[in-house]
Amino acid sequence: MKVALAVWNGRISPVFDVSRQLQIMDVQDGRVVNRVTVHFANDHPVHKVQRLLDMEVDILLCGAVSRQMAAVLDSYGIRRHDFIAGDIREVVDAYIRGALPSAEMSMPGCFSRRNRRRAKNRKGKRQK
Amino acid sequence: MDTETTRQISPESAAAILDSISDGVFTIDESWRISEFNRAAEEITGISRQEAIGKPCYEVFRASMCEVDCAMKRTLKTGEPEINRSGFIVDAEGTRIPVSVSTALLRDSAGKIIGGAETFRDLSLVEALRKELSGRYQLGDMVSRSPDMQQIFELAAQVAASTSTVLLRGETGTGKELLARAVHGLSPRNKGPFMAVNCGALPDTLLESELFGYKAGAFTGANQDKPGRFARAQGGTLFLDEIGDISPALQVRLLRVLQEKQVEPLGGTAPIDVDVRVIAATHRDLEKMVEAGEFRQDLFYRINVIKIDIPPLRKRKEDIPLLVDHFIGRFNHIQAKAVKGVTGEAMGLLMTHDYPGNVRELENRIEHAFVLCENGWIEPRHLPEGCGGIKSSGSTAANFQDAVNAFEAQLIREAMRENGYNRLKTARNLGIHKTTLFRKMKSLGIAFPEYDGRNRMAE
Lengths: 128, 459
Prior knowledge:
The complex is a heterodimer.
Chain A: E1 2-8, E2 11-12, E3 21-28, E4 31-39, H1 45-54, E5 59-61, H2 67-75, E6 79-81, H3 88-96, H4 111-127
Parallel strand pairs in A: 1-5, 5-6
Antiparallel strand pairs in A: 1-2, 1-3, 3-4
Chain B: H1 2-8, H2 11-20, E1 24-28, E2 34-37, H3 39-45, H4 49-52, H5 57-61, H6 71-78, E3 82-90, E4 96-107, E5 113-122, H7 124-134, E6 138-139, E7 142-143, H8 147-160, E8 166-169, H9 176-186, E9 194-198, H10 204-212, E10 213-214, E11 226-227, H11 229-232, E12 237-241, H12 248-260, E13 262-263, E14 272-273, E15 277-282, H13 286-291, H14 297-303, E16 306-309, H15 320-335, E17 338-342, H16 344-352, H17 358-372, E18 375-378, H18 400-418, H19 423-430, H20 434-444
Parallel strand pairs in B: 8-15, 8-16, 9-12, 12-15, 17-18
Antiparallel strand pairs in B: 1-2, 1-5, 3-4, 4-5, 6-7, 10-11, 13-14
Helix pairs in contact in B: 8-9, 15-17, 16-18, 18-19, 18-20, 19-20
Pfam families (chain A): Nitro_FeMo-Co
Protein name (chain A): Putative Fe-Mo cluster-binding NifX family protein
Region (Disordered) (chain A): 107-128
């Protein structure tokens, strides 16, 4: 399983649309077995997505993602946990424990709002 | 004197002053954590003061400049304020809010730097007006204000730069070819040709020779070489409409072309290299066709690199007035007429129609009205019969109650469809009691569907 984290200053990069650095980890049996750092040459969404596809990333952990960027990620079928904030090690640890998304690791103002929407969608599906 | 005045301001008064400012204001301490967050900042970012205070500013503000070129960092470094730096922030819904940012240092009474203050202004309205003026509600020949379509316009502009295959999905008449043309127009290949082939309109053998071409003598009647569309689209874009309609044999050949980037004309001995970007489109559910074994999975993956779903017109009715204006402008130009627009009544009827034929149907309706209306305003009598569910009766304009009834009927039909024809759910969704729904359906003459949402055939 290849997990990519958009990083900056030891934390999750605040806005994925303009983030420049990616840490890609191989996670096997709950352990990080390999870690490489790659850079984005520019902020073009297709370039970013292509980079993720080239690196065979399974899931992206990142900060805020605009709807425009999210549409490109979705159109290429890239899964993600977005609007995450925090220290890289803590985020990786939470991901491995299956604790994402969580209130502690979410950007301010995002967890309750985004989860309310997710819960609403789930409820809607159940009713159908 | 200034210093004296500042000393006399209580924290409560300072907070009140901050809250009275219409620009967003926040301050940070030396560890880049938010220490003040005013009311306008709450409104613009959608984050409450309680959630913001004490958090790193870049995780609250989430601006495009935080990581690469932070205005506050510059100010702290140079001691000089930064004024009106442009960028955008991303709110919890993923909306990019354009902002202008100004920064200044915060010092204590001894002059020691204790942090910084940042003010920011929401430029959404300015940006919207700029969009309106520069025609950014338009992509190629498509116009839309609906958020879904705006997103598609931006996505199309972004994917245009890549060479990836694009799959456009949408009902007939939604503008798949227009979007394909727009992607081609925005791509670096726009100097090359744009070729469109409707795969559903040609029989298999004809489609094969149309796509791949043939050599003289390949079959009876092939007197000279004919290059296929792939070869003719060299350096440009090939739009394959109704890709779901091609036969399994042709699917195999198409897959080989996409993989190897070479075509072999019928009767040819050597393959030809092709540099063509393929945009495919379908109104069919290819995933289901793959499951049913009707469409090759490998070809599906090959064409489904980027997928764009174009919503039907009934899901973005807010676009109807804009589209009507767009078509009137175009037909006035083509037909040298001076039609001013549509009357309120006529627009009401146009708004209540279901548009199974989507934008193309709306365009046809306006074209029909242009035949009957020389100049002035398009009235209900100029519109084709069946528009809005009301028969146009010569000179009699539809009255207000008719328009209301037509709108109600439209709303109920849409809600029924969206709720899988389950009447209770439809009633809940519309916020009315189920008996009210039944009564309205009866009075509006809406037939109860044969198949209802409780998964049994109605008696």
